[in-house]
Specification:
The protein is α/β, with parallel strands linked by helices and 476 residues long. 47% of the residues lie in helices and 15% in strands. Among the domains are: 147 residues, Leucine Dehydrogenase, chain A, domain 1 (Rossmann fold, 3-Layer(aba) Sandwich); 130 residues, 3-Layer(aba) Sandwich (Rossmann fold). The strands form 2 sheets. Strands 9-8-7-6-10-11-12 form a 7-stranded mixed sheet, with helices on both faces. Helix 7 crosses helix 9. The protein binds glutamic acid.
Length: 476
């Protein structure tokens, strides 16, 4: 590659965007250059090509697994199926996983995988073949395992793919008692944890809800405190966008627009998310949803009037060409890398509050961590304490009733008596993680007078990673 081409490619690579954000944060810290370089760079990049027989043809599939950081093990991160998958993208997404895990105190190094296919045009049978072959390639190179590297769902993959990965791993690892922990995001019937599916979307909701509780921030963008009545636009109705939309809707926010690949729909009075999904399943598209306006050019939906914009699909959707037209006062990065550094600067100058991906979409990996712990402990959450809590609560209520000489109504009693189920514990663990993460970033932003939440989040992540290097006795 000539020098000229290389510098042009580098300037526009997704990885270099993340490096820029990292460098901004590094200015607030006095850390040796070499150590910063070590944190930034990808520890291992594995690119593979393998043949798969599709129909009568042999197709050569291009795939990746990148382990960005080994400062904590196992490495962790999803696997993406998309025709746009490339090395730069997988490396960047792996790096984001490292920072994300550090921010929410999840003890993993970052990783990411990708297979360059379009799952929408490949039969289920062939997707299974490709997934199983990819997994055996990972096993062959010791790039998967409960203590090595633990994949999860990402764009284009879900529970189904995770169960094929687990099954392939198990069949090639006889006697591995912890085999279930080799992958997360599995169906509950196969060792998954309740609450994983909606975790990223719910985490996005918890993060934005917390921001909207802050008087100072809401005043800075001219909004009232609280989520009720806020106008929200969601781009992407996949697993993350769909669940986020549902939680915002339930909390009283008004979903004014939803955008998908084929176009967007708009209704200033609000869209009923579950009805949109029914319509999507029936017609194969969100367009022509009753009482809403179609927007043919889906990107235009990002520019509509709203309070909160949630890009929940792919990277680089808000860039220097459309940033000036964005009207949202808050942008919640549910996707990884949806705002380019140039757009970030433009929006920052306009006073838009951006809640960064490395914090806001960490709900997925947080609950993946809970799933991994469940698999390693071989016991369902709540199994040990549910009955115990119920018995304790019964006794407590009896004492209250006797001393007050008053009977508590049966329905209220039932609610108070109930011991925690797995879903209750997972959700409260997620809520606590997201609230704590938000305040750690906010406090750091205030104390170091950092210009925005993204830089503060990077500062927090770098500090955490340095801590673990110090604990390991590396780079004293
Ligand atoms: N793919 C998700 C992410 O980007 C989840 C990763 C995981 O659970 O390991 O955060």
């Amino acid at each position: 590659m000539s020098k000229k081409t290389k510098s042009k490619a580098d300037a526009y690579s997704f990885f270099s965007c993340i490096e820029k954000n990292f460098d901004k944060a590094a200015r607030y810290l006095s850390i040796k250059k070499g150590l910063l370089e070590q944190i930034k760079s990808c520890n291992a990049v594995y690119r593979m090509h393998f043949p798969v027989k599709i129909g009568k043809e042999i197709q050569v599939i291009e795939a990746y697994r990148v382990q960005h950081s080994h400062h904590k093990l196992p490495c962790k991160g999803g696997i993406r199926y998309s025709i746009k998958v490339n090395q730069d993208e997988v490396m960047t997404l792996a790096a984001l996983m490292t920072y994300k895990c550090a921010i929410v105190d999840v003890p993993f190094g970052g990783a990411k995988g990708g297979i360059k296919i379009d799952p929408q045009i490949i039969s289920t049978e062939n997707i299974e073949k490709i997934t199983r072959r990819y997994t055996s390639e990972l096993i062959k190179k010791i790039l998967i395992g409960p203590g090595i590297d633990v994949p999860a769902p990402d764009y284009g993959t879900g529970e189904r793919e995770m169960s094929w990965i687990f099954d392939t791993f198990l069949s090639l690892s006889p006697g591995e008692v912890d085999a279930l922990a080799c992958v997360t995001g599995k169906p509950v019937s196969q060792g998954g944890v309740r609450g994983r599916k909606e975790a990223t979307g719910l985490g996005v909701f918890y993060g934005i809800r917390e921001l909207c509780k802050m008087k100072e921030e809401m005043l800075s963008v001219g909004l009232d405190v609280g989520l009720n009545g806020k106008k929200v636009i969601i781009q992407g109705l996949g697993n993350v966008g769909y669940h986020a939309a549902t939680f915002f809707h339930e909390a009283g926010a008004i979903i004014v627009a939803l955008a998908e690949r084929e176009g967007a729909i708009y209704n200033k009075k609000g869209l009923n998310v579950s009805n949109v999904i029914i319509h999507l399943k029936k017609t194969g598209s969100i367009l022509n949803f009753p009482e809403s306006k179609n927007i043919e050019d889906t990107e235009k939906a990002l520019e509509l009037e709203c309070d909160i914009l949630i890009p929940a699909a792919l990277e680089n959707v808000i860039h220097k060409h459309n940033a000036n037209r964005i009207k949202a006062k808050i942008i919640g990065e549910a996707a990884n890398g949806p705002v380019t550094p140039e757009a970030d600067d433009i929006l920052g100058k306009k006073g838009v509050l951006i809640v960064p991906d490395i914090y806001l979409n960490a709900g997925g990996v947080t609950v993946s961590y809970f799933e991994w712990l469940k698999n390693l402990s071989h016991v369902r959450y709540g199994r040990m304490e549910k009955r115990f809590s119920e018995n304790m609560n019964t006794e407590l209520l009896q004492v209250i009733e006797t001393s007050c000489r008053k009977k508590i109504p049966i329905e209220e009693k039932k609610m108070i008596l109930r011991g925690p189920r797995e879903i209750d514990l997972v959700r409260s663990g997620l809520e606590d993680t997201m609230i704590n993460g938000f305040h750690k970033i906010r406090d750091l932003k205030k104390s170091l007078k950092i210009e925005n939440m993204r830089t503060a989040a990077f500062v927090l992540a770098i500090n955490k990673i340095i801590d673990s290097y110090e604990k390991l006795g590396i780079f004293p």
